[in-house]
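thoughts on my protein:
***
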Amino acid sequence: VGSGRSEVARLIFGADPLDAGEVALEGRAVRVRGPGHAARLGIALVPESRKEQGLLMIRSVRENVTLATLPRYATAGVVRRDRERARAEELTRRLDVRAPSTKARVGSLSGGNQQKVLFAKWLAAEPKLLIADEPTRGIDVAAKQQIHALIADLAEAGMAVLLISSEIEEVLGLAHRVLVMRRGRVVDELAGAVATQETVMRAAFAASPTEGVPKP
């Protein structure tokens, strides 16, 4: 927390401006002009706060699931509710969202089901890159296991997943490669047997005696 990881996620998604460096997608540098442009490029962000940044809590499950892809269900600018409803029902079944129907208000669902609706919203867009920032925060154990299985399945199917988590066990259980950030910078990269709880913790908290001291 405070390392700058969420800021990097928002930058890749175009929600924050880029001060330096570049964003590359499929090996090519891209200039992301905003979240809408990021979505068109195939970048999706499951944000850290589903209530403040991810979902419209007073709207229905259906409306939230199709929010990022609404033009796909429209003809001449008019939304075809049958298409929209069919897609929402398909995705809620796939993610096992427990709701009376897709007409139910998202705010009436449990935290785990809200989070699955948020994932469904972006899976509807079929992204190339899914950024998941603290994807299991504030949900129960069963929902957490379902989210973990979903992330693993997406990666197995070829989707790039950038997972951000403060739970080291979650990172080690899901990630093929671990980048550790501290004070806004990547300070270590770990993979395979080298990536352990001890090495991640050491990279996250061990500061060099000269860190932050300007070089001559």
In short: DSSP finds nine helices and nine strands in the chain. The first helix runs from residue 5 to 12. The CA atoms of residues 209 and 215 lie 13 Å apart. The beta strands are 23-25, 28-30, 43-46, 74-75, 78-79, 129-133, 160-164, 177-182, 185-191.
